[in-house]
Amino acid sequence: MNCQRLVELITAYLEGAMAEGERASIDAHLATCDGCTHYLEQFRTTIRLTGMLEEEAISPGARRSLGKVFRDWMKTA
Amino acid sequence: MAPQVLADDLELIAALRAGDEAAFMALVEQLQASMLRVARMYVPTAAIAEEVVQEAWVGVLKGLGGFEGRSSLRTWIFRILVNIAKTRGQRESRSIPFASIWSPGDEEPSVDPERFQGPGGEYPSHWAEPPIAWGPEEQLASRETLARVAEAIEALPPNQREVIRMRDLSGWTSAEVCNALEISETNQRVLLHRARSKVRRALEAYLAPDGDDEG
Predict the structure, then answer these.
(1) N or C end of chain A: which has fewer CB within 10 A?
(2) Domain boundaries, chain B
(3) Separation between Cα atoms, residue A52 and residue B93, nearest integer Å
(4) What is the percent of chain B with per-residue pLDDT over 70, rounded to a whole number?
(5) What's the pLDDT tens digit per position in B51-83?
């Protein structure tokens, strides 16, 4: 394993989408490489910060027309 | 599928059938923005995307009785959305092949190759300029930093943008995203990886101690 390859495999590593041998070679590399350890930590932080964002609010117009969609459906249901 | 998700979905469906408009609006609130952006990838204008999403909601309510819980409710809703968006996209005779919408495209490095030692270096392909620790996350998570994250996501190609939003912002599982958007596990992962890598890069530039991106 080298650093340039590791940065391409981080998502597969975090998703558990790799063979055991490859995972082991990444773990072994991380154990001795500060740069990659920081990289992995930055990557995890990036994921957590993304999780703190909020979804955009919907427009009042869409809200009104979808409320109507629901009430119309209730009448026919 | 986590049983808890299914239980929540079944509870929500029962509320919808009982005429609970607030429950419906909460669901709309949760999915609408994402549905609009995904629909927009298949049709030529934002106005048509809005029609597609509206039609999808009508379809969802009509089809509610047929929901069997084999996928999560939100996955099922997106399947309805994507089907309508495709039909509408074809009718509007867009020439883009739908398969290319979610194709990751050409390879792109996750990190600038200059950050690594070249073939002549002491340790080729190992860090020349290694990343540094960012410090405690509580301090990082300022409004300003989050605005940079949002900006970086907004700047992504639409397919990467929607996948990272679904996975990391809205907490969908990889199986849900693959199923909802009808994409392969591999493509989903590549799109997610590229998106995360770019957002990390933007954060690194912003947080750099030399402050070259501060303003």
Answers:
(1) C
(2) 3-96, 101-207
(3) 39
(4) 93
(5) 999 999 999 999 998 888 888 999 999 999 999
CB contact set of B88 (below 8 Å; sequence gap of 6+): B42, B43, B48, B51, B52, B55
Number of H helices, E strands in chain B: 9, 0
Q: Which residues of A fall within a CB distance of 8 Å from B189?
A: 11-12, 15, 17
- The predicted model gives B38-45 an average pLDDT of 95
Residue B139 has pLDDT above 90, yes or no: no
Query: Best interface-test mutation with B: which of A66, A71, A72, A76 has the largest number of B CBs within 10 A?
Result: A66
What is the sign, positive or negative, of the torsion defined by CA atoms of A10, A14, A19, A21?
positive
CATH number for the domain whose boundaries are B3-96? 1.10.1740.10
Q: State the residue for tokens 């999780």.
A: A51
User: Which of B110, B153, B173 is the best residue to mutate to test the A interface, defined by the most A CB atoms within 10 Å of its own CB?
Assistant: B110
CB-based contact A17:B189 (threshold 8 Å): yes
In angstroms, the CA B52 to CA B56 distance is 6
Q: What is the ipTM of this complex?
A: 0.95
Q: For A8-46, write each residue's pLDDT tens digit.
A: 999 999 999 999 999 999 999 999 999 999 999 999 999
Non-local (6+) Cβ contacts of B170 within 8 A are: A55, B30, B34
Q: What is the mean pLDDT of residues B132-138?
A: 89
By residue range, what is the domain housing residue A25? 3-76
Q: Is B34 helix (H, G, I), strand (E, B) or coil?
A: helix
CATH of span B101-207: 1.10.10.10
Q: Is the dihedral of CA A17, A18, A24, A29 positive or negative?
A: negative
